[in-house]
């Protein structure tokens, strides 16, 4: 088997290259690439992400951040259509037809990437995909290969996001053990956060408390902490 040379670009060439600017689906909040969104069960992850998907599909502001309007694919794999209908009706009376929901999808080893690619071919203006949850599209990995399995799966999802220039958000749970660094509380090995472009960690004492914090860290983002307040009636 022949070995190809490593393709390189010199520093001088790199500075002269006319590269496209980084795409932000939500300005200064969600850039293109693969991102992890984590939180304990029932803290409002799905409500927050549903609102995000809706605002991107509508091209309306998400909080104070401008969105890029585009088609959105939301894989709500732990929910039913009845539940999603109820949630959607609580935050809007007029959902656009460019937000698509699916409650079933193949696993990563059984054709999920092909399914996503087929959706993108049908909807070339897609700019956001949410996978809720990451664990629902993964196969069990032996403990000896924990890091390698995490890194491989995240890298596979990142590759399709990078190749299409879109943002993909994979939902993951947090460990209950406290950590000084919230990003280190994301379930899985460091292969999850290491391979991802960014991580968003939602911390809220319980579902009855309206106040919460969203910890944000990413390769193309300034690290920040947002104070957020959930509306008890609309979940926004």
Description of the structure:
The structure is a single chain. This protein has helices spanning 11-16, 45-58, 81-91, 112-122, 146-164, 190-195, and strands spanning 24-26, 30-31, 33-39, 71-76, 99-102, 126-132, 167-173, 198-203, 211-218, 221-229. It is α/β, with parallel strands linked by helices. It is globular. The longest helix has 19 residues, at 146-164. The strands form two sheets. Strands 5-4-6-7-3-8-9-10 form an eight-stranded mixed sheet. The mean pLDDT is 92.
Spatial ordering of strands, largest sheet: 5-4-6-7-3-8-9-10
Instruction: Tell me the number of strands.
Output: 10
Q: How is the main sheet built?
A: 8 strands, mixed
Gyration radius from CA atoms, angstroms: 18 Å
Counting helices, strands and paired strands, the structural category is alpha/beta
Helix content range of the residues, please? Answer: 25-40%
Query: In angstroms, what separates the terminal alpha carbons?
Result: 57 Å
Q: Which band does the percent of strand residues land in?
A: 25-35%
Order of helices and strands: HEEEHEHEHEHEHEEE
Low-confidence stretches: none
Question: Given the structure, what is the number of helices?
Answer: 6
Averaged pLDDT, please?
Answer: 92
What's the shape? globular
């Amino acid at each position: 088997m022949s070995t190809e040379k490593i393709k390189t670009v010199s520093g001088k060439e790199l500075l002269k290259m006319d590269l496209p600017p980084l795409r932000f689906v939500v300005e200064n909040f969600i850039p293109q690439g693969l991102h992890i969104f984590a939180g304990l069960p029932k803290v409002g992850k799905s409500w927050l992400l549903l609102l995000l998907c809706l605002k991107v599909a509508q091209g309306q502001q998400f909080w104070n951040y401008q969105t890029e309007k585009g088609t959105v694919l939301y894989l709500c794999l732990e929910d039913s259509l009845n539940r999603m209908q109820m949630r959607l009706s609580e935050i809007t009376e007029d959902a656009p037809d460019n937000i698509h929901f699916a409650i079933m999808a193949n696993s990563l080893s059984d054709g999920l990437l092909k399914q996503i690619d087929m959706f993108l071919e049908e909807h070339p203006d897609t700019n956001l995909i949410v996978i809720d949850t990451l664990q629902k599209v993964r196969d069990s990995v032996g403990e000896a290969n924990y890091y390698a399995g995490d890194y491989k799966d995240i890298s596979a999802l990142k590759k399709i996001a990078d190749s299409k220039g879109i943002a993909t958000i994979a939902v993951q749970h947090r460990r209950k053990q406290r950590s000084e660094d919230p990003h280190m509380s994301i379930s899985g090995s460091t292969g999850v956060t290491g391979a991802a472009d960014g991580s968003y960690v939602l911390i809220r004492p319980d579902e009855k408390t309206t106040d919460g914090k969203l910890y944000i860290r990413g390769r193309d983002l300034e690290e920040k902490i947002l104070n957020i307040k959930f509306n008890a009636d609309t979940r926004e």
